[in-house]
Structures are given as structure tokens and as C-alpha cells.
Write a structure and sequence with these properties.
- This protein has 128 residues and is mostly beta strands.
- The chain is built from no helices and eleven strands.
- The strands form two sheets. Strands 2, 4, 5, 6, 9, 10 and 11 form a seven-stranded mixed β-sheet that branches.
- The radius of gyration is 14 Å and the shape is globular.
- The model has no long low-confidence stretch (mean pLDDT 96).
Length: 128
Amino acid sequence: QLQLVESGGGLVQPGGSLRLSCAASGFTLDYYAIGWFRQAPGKEREVVSCISTSTSDGSINYANSVMGRFTISRDNAKNTVYLQMNSLKPEDTAVYFCAAAAPSLRCPLTLAVRWDYWGQGTQVTVSS
């Protein structure tokens, strides 16, 4: 079964950190550009970060709102992509999703492109 599974969400105080994981089963994650997205209640889903395949240019992009605080990375041995989130703010509260883009696509990517696989999402709540 081909799927993505996110984990690592939770409740954290402002200024705290979390590391989200996006693990793939049934396919090799490094064959795809991977995006992290988030959706807050009442808001549209937005792209947070994107990482291209290591066999392409490996390009990485971030939304302006998370630049300097979030870091995306791959561990190909574990078939996993991570999103390290530091200096978290209440406005980072959302459900976070990862997705694998259609083959041959490279970052930066938008929601308008074809995303072949989506995870179920993991809740991140930043609150004191």
C-alpha cells in the first residue's frame, strides 16, 4: 500500500520546537519532491516548505512566514522527510500535511501542481 504518514505533532508553548516526520511506505520518497503544508481552521491550505529530490538540484524553499525558523530535510535511509520547527508561534497552529509531487517536478511548487500522495495530517498547537 502506497502511503505517507505524518507524525510528531502536539501541543507546545510559544518559542518551543517540534519535529514533524513524513514517512513513506510502498514507494521511495526520494523519487519525489516533497512538500509540507498546513491548514488552520477557517483558512486555506498553504505551502510551508518544499524539498526537491537529491538526484535533481535538491532545492529547498520556505514560505516567508516560516523562513529562518523551520528546516526541511531528508533521510533517505529511513525513507522519511522531516520538518524541524523552532521558535514556534501561536499563528503556526494548524494541521500539517506532507505530500509527494508528481514525478519530475522540482521546488518551488504550489498547490496547483499535481500532488500524487498525501498524508493524513498531524495537529500542531502552539499555546501557553
